[in-house]
Every structure is written in structure tokens, then in C-alpha cells.
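INPUT
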Amino acid sequence: MPNRIKLNPRHQKIYSIVCEIPKGCVSTYGDIARFAGYPRCARLVGVALRSAPDDLNIPWHRVINAQGKISFSKGSDKAQIQQQRLEEESVVFMSGVVNLRQYGWAGNIDKDLWQM
DNA sequence: GCACTGACTCCCA
DNA sequence: ATGGGAGCCAGTG
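OUTPUT
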């Protein structure tokens, strides 16, 4: 990913993590924050993604909250776009909720690798 | 530098 | 299962 844009190291770290999310998978703010090295900074992820320029092509739509839902207000433009993009990646929304057990990227490694 | 806000999360009623 | 409240850390004004 191009890092020509000068941003805070934390943000860049978060961007890197988000970019590592494989297609067809989703992750949560809390998990990404953990991977980035900021266990309690779920909000920071939100701030970072909000500041994320489109130039980087950040797959921010693969980032959802711990409930498996979109953090935006229902009916919000971004929420619509996010869901649509995920569906295009074979991520199925059931009642507006993503099954993290199945699509959760962090979920695959969280149990064994991050169990401490 | 202080105070408020937030694309969050967790716990309890 | 659902709803409400407190905690958390950074960013922004």
C-alpha cells in the first residue's frame, strides 16, 4: 500500500491491518485494534478509518463492530455501500448481521493464537 | 492544554 | 434476547 501520504503511525498500522483482511472476510474494530497493538483502542480504528483517504483503497467495508453489524446508522449511505460491497464479496448478511463465526477473519486465529 | 465527541466494547438489569 | 450505562483511548475543537 502506498504510504506517500503522511499520517500518524497508528493510523498507518491500522490501515495495514485492514488491508490484510482477505477478501470475503470481515473483522471487528476491537480485533483490528488488538492486531495493531492497541487492545483497548477500538475507537481509534474508527477514527483512523474515518480519516482514511480513498487513495489508499482501504477495504474499510470489511470492518464492522463486535456485534457483526455495521456501525453506521441504519439507512445511512455508508452503511448501504458497506453492506453492498460485502455482499459482492460473498459475505452474507442475515437480518443485517454478519456471521462472524463464519466470515470473521480474526475469528479464525483469535481462539488459538491470541488466547493469552 | 482542557474538554467533548466518537465508524467501540463489555457488563449488568 | 434486549436495552441501558459505564469504561476506554485518541482525535479534534
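end of record. The radius of gyration of chain A is 14 Å.
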